[in-house]
Fold this sequence. Notes:
Pfam families: NIF (PF03031). The chain is of the alpha/beta class. 23% of the residues lie in helices and 23% in strands.
Amino acid sequence: MDGEKKLPAMDLQKSKNTLVLDLRETLVVISRNPLPHTDLTVEFKFQGHLEKFHVTKRPGVDQLLQQLSAIYEIVVFTEEGKSFTDALLKHLDPTETIIPMTHRLYFESCEVKHPVPIYIKDLAILGRDLSRVIFVDDKPYHSYQCENAFPLGAFKGDKNDRNLFQLIDFCKSFAASSSLYVREAIACYPLSVCDNFLLPAVSEKKLTLVLELYGALVDICPEPKNGSFRVEYGFEGKMRTCFVSKRPGLDKLLDELRGFYEIVVFTRAERANASALLDKLDPAQKIIPLSHRIFRNSCTELRGNLVKDLCKLGRDLGRVIYVDVWPCESLQPENLRSVGRFSRHMKDRDRALFDLMDFCKSVAESEPCDVRTHLAADIDNNDRKRDKNVPMLPPMENHKERTLVLSLSGTFIQSSPMPLPGYDFTVDFESLGERHTCYVLKRPGLELLLSKLPVLGYEIVVFSSAEKEFVDCVLQKLDPQQKTIAMTHRFSRKDCTELQNSVIIKDLSKLGRDLSKVIFVDDRPYYSYQSENAFPVCEFKGDMNDRALFDLIAFCKRVAKYKSSDVREDILCYALMSSSINAERSMLPPMRKTDIKMNKKTLVLDLDETLVHSTDKLPKNKKYDFAVEIIEYTNTKCTYYILKRPWVDLMLNELKRLYEIVVFTAADREYADAILDKLDPSGSIFRHRLYRDSCTELPGPRHVKDLSELGRNLSKVIFVDDNYLRHHQQENAFPVLKFANDMSDRELLGLVEFCKRVANSKSDVRSDLLSYALSQQHGYAGWN
């Protein structure tokens, strides 16, 4: 964030405490469709389009606002847009005396995390003493200060809900008490009220050690192995059996740390099989009692994935160490002590739990104020120790000259837990102690590719973001003799690089190969650091007329025949001349041949507040460039007064010769075309126009632009938008500030200078954009 305080100075004569409220599923339920108990409807205009939502108020919301406004400064901090929020609050607070306009923060004030946007609320930007701030949100993990959160479940429309009345009582008691810290007051709040805490209250002030079970402590064996033990459990009316191999040091870790830590198992596995396993590890339940065994049903669903919310434990997160394999499986990765995935094949060399035991002992003996500082220091120390030069692949065989790296699902197979039409085979594999079945359909040309390319001097590598068990089972079907894809050439999710925002990246530099001789084949090449090595293929969705692998074979033959010195140049030429890049999903037609010959890049422009400022009210100074009349959905005529951003005409005329220019706006077609026809009356500037119907709709309403669907090479796409929250590919954004009516604005001159400089560059524009953004001092969150 930019460091600017979002609220005005506090009126200390009124209150020293601040109450920060979310809206959706905290105070109200919102739906486009009628609700069983609709209290009100909200209508508002959004970019020329009339939106209508049905709203059910949570019981107690009116009493909360009326009673607490006298003793608290009340702030609304929401992921919603301004138009909707203000329209809703007009019903809840029509006089704006409880929640004035200065105390309303919208999604622009959130911090975004990609690839799928998650909007994080940083209470530090309020400019308030956080020891006196109460945060109320059904998703407290979407804040950096979840320890300030009063525990409140999501409101789904239940008119018997009593949560807000409990909140009123708590806020009144805190305001009347002598307590200096709201976090202590929340931590001491009766657990019988905080019914979403997963652990019982404890009087002993131990640290808390939270352990994942599968992958971190044990490995599941399909058959008996040395040192494994048998676990039987009932599930769905049948007895199931699995064999478990314990990680070296597990028994010693549990025995030695029990005196220092409260030990909790929090696993994504089902209760049935995890309980049976825990009873084998701790039959007396002295180390991990029943109350400290938490299973799949207590996980939080996020974007279709199950994750663990440590806030639900009811413990001070400054005293919680979380042990798991993957940061993305928790909403608090800053509490993670990663141990790496345990495999029974590496049992003799695994020292992870011994290292964990030493670390946990040293932390406990230091009596830390916050264990997260020790965890961060441990990560830095491990990074320094790790030898980053050890290649993943063994030395290349003498008769091999190039490397072909293949992804798996979506690239050369289609897989699904449901039967696929005409599927080729099924695979059964274990994951997290559960048995899974997947149906697999091979992409046309796969057998030919695996048989032909090794003869041409290619070593074949599979690099997938899927779990190892799935990868091994699929490749056992495709190459049972391991003649084409050796076991040393198979990599899975554990070999990927995981970023802090839980994005899984494939780093080809780790392979230990000359990247000028590596061809990478993935339907999502942007999840690699080396997208310039990616041969363009679209996702395989079962079309048996698909020709992508045949095109790949022909390309690889040509590269081998002419002994190319750098395959990246060949891939670039192929991509520029091909009209099939993501053809199935492309929103744009193929680039013109003249543009391809000139090696033009694509410049994607937003409209409102980027190129122009628009208002449906006549400006007080009566200064505007032109007006457009639109027939609204209500069949009424509306006039919009348009003010062009300074230098917009110069920018368009200068760059139309150098770039393919595309407008991508969240506005409706009629509204946008009326403005664009004024900016480009001859139709010679904007090659393509994309409107709201081409956006991805998220709750809010919020319309997000996905540049990957343009059908263009993203290493050659520059996107210009005043709000970086509106698109998935932040790394492609040129940063410009929002334009309202500042006629001294010079943002577009900076854009012209940058675009001219990189127009003929052969490098990835995303690296140029990053360098530019870091050199600027723009005052919004995306570039600091």
